[in-house]
What does this fold into?
Amino acid sequence: MTVRTRFAPSPTGQVHIGNLRAAIYNWLYARHAGGQCLLRIEDTDRERSTPAAVQAVLEALAWLGLTADEPPLYQSARTAAHLAAAEDLLRRGRAYKADKGGTGQGECVLFRMPGTDMHFHDEIKGDLAKPAADLQDFVIVRSNGTPVFHLANVVDDIAMRVTHVIRGDDHVENTFRHVALFQALGAPAPKYAHLPMIVNAQGKPYSKRDGAAYVGDFRAKGYLPAALLNYLALLGWSPGDDRELLSRDELVRLFTLERVQSSPAQMDPVKLQWMNGEYMRALPRAEREAACRAVLEARGLWNDALPADYLGRVLEVLQERVKLFTDIAAAGYFFTEDYPYDEAAVQKRLRKPGAREALAAARSVYAALTDFSAAATEKALRDLAAARGASFGDWVHPVRVAVSGTAIGPSLFHLLEVLGQARTVQRMAKTLEKFGG
Ligand code: GLU
It folds into this structure.
């Protein structure tokens, strides 16, 4: 039997990472098994399923390279098939009409549960059961004639010949109903795998209040799709050893449902950032620089007058400080003389007694240097501090704030080397003028 999985999102807004992870697992599982991965857009909620929301799903999948093996099936186009199934169930006494709640709004169609205890095997959670008393008949067609999620979901899974349903564990309760529907419709139920929730550091469902939660957020922040794919694949699954950087091909080769954990998976944005940094550094240099340049251009920081190898040298100095392309913007001072001064840094480092005197002395020494390598500027500053009997730090910090406007950054002397002597000295002079009084 060929494995057929499907990702069946309800496009109601942006794509949450929990949904994206479900898409990834469906895709990996199908690829691993040499089967097919399908896409079904569950767009029956006419108010919330806007074209923009559908577009967001398609774009998210395309961005991560999660291609489906057949054209997407739009559930809204399948109403006739859903209603035909309801008719069939009515004819065979497996469903009945009733004015539910006696609202006088007309009759809806209810599915008749078998009246027995229900159980199913979940590939991740094991055997799950529910007593008959907890399984009430339920509406499958509303009084206005529209099919309900449970019916549409099952009828379409049958039509698409889905063999494995991999989805969020918020659907576990629904599955007892779905299994009963499969049975009543004379179709074998698929295998089920319900994925544990993604939670925040407090163990609560991870939401946008905890940070970036939608695929579009990560994209806008400059994450690489390959890094997000790798990270989300590991959010609830592991290859069985402690490897963390896994290519798409390795993920496909290693992915099994047995290794999906049943406990909630904790989202760790710091780890994702680290992973993105690893992927970024593995990119060909030209690609990395082009992406950083695009960020700088978008923020008006790109300067054509700088040497061709300048951005490359900046990135070398910044090293793992750039975990996202957008991180380059925090080092905007490399690219413009018009960099902002961080008020707190100015207070702490430049307004301190002796700081401006130190800066002025350092400026004179730097202006006279004939070698402006990192080693030379460091030695010069050390000698200066030692000669004045001052601590090195008292000299380093004012220089850093003067040339970059901020108290944080990469190795100062490498920064100076990249800036070059003229710009360094000019920046120190400008800063003294600005905060001299
Ligand atoms: N549209 C449902 C959801 O997004 C789908 C569930 C399923 O995969 O069966 O939660």
Summary: Residues 8-10, 42, 153, 165, 167, 171 surround glutamic acid (CB under 6 Å). The chain has a mean pLDDT of 95. Residues 343-434 form a domain with the Arc Repressor Mutant, subunit A fold (CATH 1.10.10.350). The longest helix spans residues 17-32.
